[in-house]
Design a protein that fits this description.
15 helices, transmembrane, 2 domains, 20% strand, 6-stranded mixed barrel, 10 strands, single chain, alpha+beta, elongated
């Protein structure tokens, strides 16, 4: 062990008459540990939120959507769909017809977004139909007219209107027919054949699926669709691929992608992560002040010892390193304890899923995604701040004059 490190370790083992210094040192270690632990847990939660939201968005929606700039829908869509499927980087494509409706059962009702789909195609671009955990979406595969057409709804919407598999719901569309008394909304009864649960409140509370032909009849849109959805081979190049699809589709079309649709959400999560790091990093700064106080008191207590060491030939830079090593030992010990506690609690929280209110947080449990990179960043900040706090007391110790300190001994 180096001489400076040996002396630093001995000084940290305070004697009884130096109990106050020992208590402050313990508080410093605890402060660093608390700051590091809090940062690791907070960053794990924000990483988990971003990961879960992105995974659920990408599993539930397409990467790129193609629509007409005008609101008259896409006609002759079969030919266009077949042509665009051949575009580079496109791995799957599916037609869809969207429309806002009111879904009701008895006195209970809720707003919903209907999507008319061809199930076999829809499953290639969206995973919502694969997340049906009550009933089955197989009825959407049937061809031809059905007296009471099938519909698949989200779990939260089902709870809102009190519907279960096998129940009949009334779907009311504002796109009704013109009568002598004005436009009368169009309505149709549907049978709930399946309920999906994605865990993402936005979808579970408002999305519903029906056969494309049934949606076209409901919205009085014969053989029209409103969107063609695409899966691409590189989701992070969705913007560039979307422009290529838009150019291939021709005049009158525009595309949106998952990054554009959710830009504000991920920007808010990133800002939250930065603010969390800054706020909780103040805990480490407070702990660094404790280190500063502890080492300053140590220097005052050990002035005569420092003078003796210097009279034996110990250089000023070695004295400085003694107190730098003291601050480093406090910081390393606190950081190590904080990392163990932070990662341990994050793993525990990820294993025992703590429930959240999905209507507030969009997801139904608290996610944890601890990152090694975050641990390295937090450790670097903790050690750096703590070492800055040692500069003043270590410099003061190196300036002790042996003759002055031992004059009256």
């Amino acid at each position: 062990m180096r001489f400076e490190l040996f002396i630093a370790a001995r000084y940290l083992r305070a004697k009884r008459r130096q109990a106050v210094i020992g208590i402050i040192t313990g508080i410093s270690v605890a402060g660093v540990a608390a700051g590091v632990m809090s940062l690791i847990i907070a960053l794990a939660i924000t990483n988990g939120m971003q990961r879960d939201l992105q995974d659920r968005l990408l599993s539930s929606t397409a990467h790129v959507d193609l629509m007409r700039i005008a609101s008259d829908g896409i006609s002759d869509w079969q030919t266009l769909l077949a042509r665009l499927k051949q575009q580079p980087h496109v791995t799957a494509a599916a037609p869809g017809l969207y429309g806002q409706v009111l879904v009701s059962r008895g006195a209970k009702s809720g707003g919903a977004l209907i999507k008319g789909v061809i199930p076999a195609d829809e499953r290639t671009v969206s995973g919502l139909l694969q997340q049906v955990n009550q009933g089955s979406a197989a009825a959407l595969e049937k061809q031809g007219p059905i007296a009471v057409p099938p519909i698949v709804i989200g779990k939260d919407l089902a709870e809102t209107i009190g519907a279960a598999v096998g129940d009949t719901v009334l779907v009311t569309s504002p796109q009704g027919g013109l009568t002598p008394i004005g436009i009368v909304p169009k309505y149709q009864r549907y049978s709930v054949v399946g309920i999906f649960h994605s865990g993402f409140y936005q979808y579970d509370s408002s999305y519903t699926f029906m056969r494309l032909a049934d949606a076209q009849r409901l919205f009085s849109e014969p053989d029209l669709i409103s969107v063609i959805s695409f899966k691409v081979d590189d989701l992070y190049k969705a913007n560039e691929i979307g422009r290529q699809i838009e150019a291939a589709a021709g005049q009158g079309f525009q595309t949106t992608n998952w990054m554009e649709q959710n830009r504000e959400l991920f920007r808010a999560l990133k800002l939250e992560q930065i603010v969390t790091f800054i706020v909780l990093g103040l805990i480490v700064c407070v702990a660094a002040l404790n280190i500063l106080i502890a080492l300053t008191m140590m220097v005052m207590e050990k002035t005569k010892d420092i003078a003796v060491l210097m009279s034996f030939g110990v250089r000023a830079d070695q004295i400085r390193r003694i107190f730098l090593f003291q601050g480093l030992l406090i910081s390393v010990l606190g950081t190590a304890i904080g990392l163990v506690l932070g990662y341990g609690l994050s793993v525990f929280g990820g294993h025992y899923r703590f429930p959240l209110d999905a209507s507030v947080y969009s997801i139904d449990h608290l996610p944890f995604a601890p990152s090694i990179t975050d641990g390295l960043l937090v450790s670097a900040v903790s050690l750096g701040v703590s070492l800055l706090a040692t500069l003043y007391p270590s410099t003061s110790a190196a300036r002790v004059l042996p003759a002055e300190a031992l004059r009256y001994e």
